[in-house]
Write a structure and sequence with these properties.
This protein has about 210 residues and is α/β, with parallel strands linked by helices. The chain has 2 domains: about 130 residues, Rossmann fold, CATH 3.40.50; about 70 residues, no CATH class. About 55% of the residues lie in helices and about 10% in strands. A 5-stranded parallel sheet has the order 2-3-1-4-5, with helices on both faces. Helix 2 crosses helix 5 and helix 4 crosses helix 5.
Length: about 210
Amino acid sequence: MLRVALTGGIGSGKTTVTDHLKSLNVPVLDADEISRALTRPGGPAVAPIIKLFGTSITTDRGELDRATLRSRVFQNPQARADLEKLLHPMIRAEMADQEKAVDYPYCVFSIPLLLETNRVREFDAVVVVDAPDSMRREWIQSRSGLDPDQIDAIFQVQASREERLAVATHVLHNENSIQDLLMGIDDLHVCLLAMAESKTRDVPTR
């Protein structure tokens, strides 16, 4: 199976891409979705996170206060490193478990922090969803209501646009219409199916 990493900065349009790939019946393993499942009420990561940061990051109902936790980790590099050290192995383990059930020529692994976690070499192809920083800032603010300082803090801890493009084998440009992006995804799908077929032919037989 061809293993394809999908990455891009916050607000670049990764969700639009993965949603369209799923509509094409492409299996997508999403690190963000797995993280949310791990940290939802009763999730296996909740108790370890509360133990790490204390009850100040919980709501009155004992659930994780995501806004408070996000503010804590983006203001404190050590707190962010501690959270990532806890969560990332759990996310990788769940992703690897889900991969076992995949039966398709290729599988997409949506990993926003692909470069930051040094995982580029694990994949046969790297797709970068790219959009100008100014457009990303507008989308983030309209979607999440974060203020410019909060957006700056997120940008500072993520790889730069140039760093992501430097490792890309394929780029989806998201700076025009949604229709243009969807057409680009369709073209990418055809390309990845061809790559998967080629990889299958190259596997030696006994």
